[in-house]
């Protein structure tokens, strides 16, 4: 990882921090592992690629920050909805999907050689501009009813 100048920042569940940190250490990989943070947006700004589950909020947060991602859908999600969430972006060639059983280190590392900038530009194009203002206006109008 060091020879490719890859920095790993891993948000793990609070219960899994020690286990995840130990796994990286056992592999000799330097990684910053944390549970909850109020500074996630700062980490996202620094990143070139995210590897994440594909819940709707996560997917759109990554899209809104124009951060290309490899999505690994949670295999037990109802109706496989995380896969279908990610498929929306993959079909537009703006993200990648790997099932847990398909994860391959070389394939993941190869994504770093992809044109991440064009993916980022594509993500910027599909995200609704001023979306939060539009939602606030809708809520304000609804509250008047």
Outline of the structure:
It is built from 7 helices and 5 strands. With 145 residues, it is mainly alpha-helical. The chain has a single domain (38-143), classed as 3-Layer(aba) Sandwich (Rossmann fold), CATH 3.40.50.
Q: What can you see in these coordinates?
A:
It is an enzyme of class 2 (transferase). One of its GO terms (molecular function) is undecaprenyldiphospho-muramoylpentapeptide beta-N-acetylglucosaminyltransferase activity. This is UDP-N-acetylglucosamine--N-acetylmuramyl-(Pentapeptide) pyrophosphoryl-undecaprenol N-acetylglucosamine transferase. By secondary structure, the protein is mainly alpha-helical. 46% of the residues lie in helices and 11% in strands. The protein has seven helices and five strands. The strands form two sheets. A three-stranded parallel beta sheet has the order 3-4-5, covered by helices on one side. A two-stranded parallel ribbon has the order 1-2.
CATH T-level fold name: Rossmann fold
Q: Which CATH C-level class is it? A: Alpha Beta
Helix content: 40-55%
The termini sit apart by 56 Å
The tally of beta strands, per DSSP, is 5
SSE class: mainly alpha
Q: Provide the succession of SSEs.
A: EHEHEHEHEHHH
Give the oligomeric state of the chains in this entry, treating copies of one chain as homo and distinct chains as hetero.
single chain
CATH superfamily heading: Glycogen Phosphorylase B
Biggest sheet character = 3 strands, parallel
Number of domains: 1
User: What is the topology, as strand order, of the major beta sheet?
Assistant: 3-4-5
What general form does the structure show?
Answer: globular
CATH architecture: 3-Layer(aba) Sandwich
Strand content: 5-15%
């Amino acid at each position: 990882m060091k020879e490719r100048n890859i920095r790993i920042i891993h948000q793990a569940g609070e219960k899994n921090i020690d286990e995840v940190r130990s796994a990286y250490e056992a592999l000799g990989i330097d990684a910053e592992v944390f549970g909850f943070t109020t500074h996630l947006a700062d980490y996202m700004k620094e990143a070139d690629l995210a590897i994440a589950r594909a819940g709707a909020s996560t997917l759109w947060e990554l899209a809104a920050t124009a951060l290309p991602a490899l999505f690994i859908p949670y295999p037990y999600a109802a109706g496989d909805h995380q896969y279908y969430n990610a498929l929306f972006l993959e079909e537009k060639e703006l993200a990648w999907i790997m099932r847990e059983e398909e994860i391959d280190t070389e394939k993941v590392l190869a994504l770093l050689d992809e044109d991440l900038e064009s993916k980022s530009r594509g993500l910027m194009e599909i995200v609704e501009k001023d979306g939060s203002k539009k939602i606030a206006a809708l809520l304000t109008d609804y509250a008047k009813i």
